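Q: You know discrete backbone vocabularies at least as well as I do. I have my own habits and do not want them to colour yours. No explanation is needed for now; the record alone will do.
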Amino acid sequence: TVPRRRRPRSDMGRGLTLLFLPLALLAGPAQAEGDTAAAEVKIEVLHLPEVCSPKSKKGDLLNAHYDGFLASDGSKFYCSRTQNEGHPKWFVLGVGQVIKGLDIAMMNMCPGEKRKVIIPPSLAYGQQGYAQSKIPPNATLIFEIELYAVNKGPRSVEAFNQIDKDSDKKLSELEISQYLKEEFARDGKKRHPSVHDEILADIFKKNDHDGDGFISAKEYNVYQHDEL
């Protein structure tokens, strides 16, 4: 597949993995700053619904279909409708789950909107290309995108406040433990009791940067798209 993305798990969905674990892997190779200085994503709006709200922003969770083509010959290298039984893809915007050009191209987009975008190599796969998807080096890419949903992302203020029962702007082990129990109950899957403890320990290991036993608003809100 071309863009890397994590698909939420059923009803837990925008849940445990996306909620707490850092998303460190970028979809494309890192580019030197000079390579992207003159780069630009060209956006053509193919369809704009009468009601254009909410508009997407960094940190939002999007659901979309997209087809990818090589600008050089028009050949299709990716089609989300043929992947994962044709389900639209979920991903968090602006955090590197897709190539940089798509993160840029899908900003300020509303549900029901369709776009055709042209992405230069420096905002896609650069000089390396992506052999697995038959994308050659220095390839300009074209994507046709249809956006279905714009939701509050897993690091939103609303999600934080939902867990922060005592409203002290920090998440305790007890609060996160209770949240996990609620999510497990909602999901309905049978799990060994040790799974709860393992996930809880992993959450604090990856998010409690100062080691004080709490996850602060700053430590939690890694996407920096809302103010707490």
Residues 12 and 111 are 22 Å apart (CA to CA).
